[in-house]
Amino acid sequence: MEKTKLAAPGSVPRHVAIIMDGNNRWAKKRLLPGVAGHKAGVDAVRAVIEVCAEAKVEVLTLFAFSSENWQRPAEEVGALMELFFSALRREARRLNENNIALRIIGDRSRFHPELQAAMREAEAVTAGSNRFILQIAANYGGQWDIAQAAQRLAREVQAGHLRPDDITPQLLQTCLATGDLPLPDLCIRTGGERRISNFLLWQLAYAELYFSDLYWPDFKHEAMRNALADFASRQRRFGKTSEQVEAGARA
For Mg(2+), which residues are the binding ones (predicted)? Predict the structure, then answer.
């Protein structure tokens, strides 16, 4: 087992984004149905929330269901929707008691109206919380996010409120689903895969990437603390040289 490391003060990411991968493989390894892995993954979500709250992370974004996941077997998709619905109802008040605000990003139109209502209710219950933000990406895709931002700007141009030359990367960024939040500093993917799978494509441009071989249900407190410690050990240059970054730190 890896030894737990603690992140250095001042080196905590403001925004952590996680691709929770490996639930099905975790279940298959134990000769269980796939939904058992998704249910087990809920405990990992709680553990990661606890560590992020402890470390004073400001935003935690979890990739719960991608726009491509509808292609999975209907039985699994149905079970996921039921799990999502019950988790919203069960966890919203717990999040509120811990002063954690819940936000859900993605195209909600494809979800059942009852699930859409549960999403709105869960967000409303936690709306006054300010310890940190838990953001769930559901029926979300990075390409969809960029396209919907472009559509918003196109409508502004069409209405005469904006000129094409006024559109800058900064302006487009404000139209993304996460436009009012800090960009992710750290993106974690579990399950041993090494790709970002259409998750926060624009937002991850300068994020540090951290890949874990652990399946998501096994990614608990120690694993999350190790990811934060790894982040703290990195030098973030944003296009500058190491010498420039070090000079700026000394200034």
Answer: 21, 208
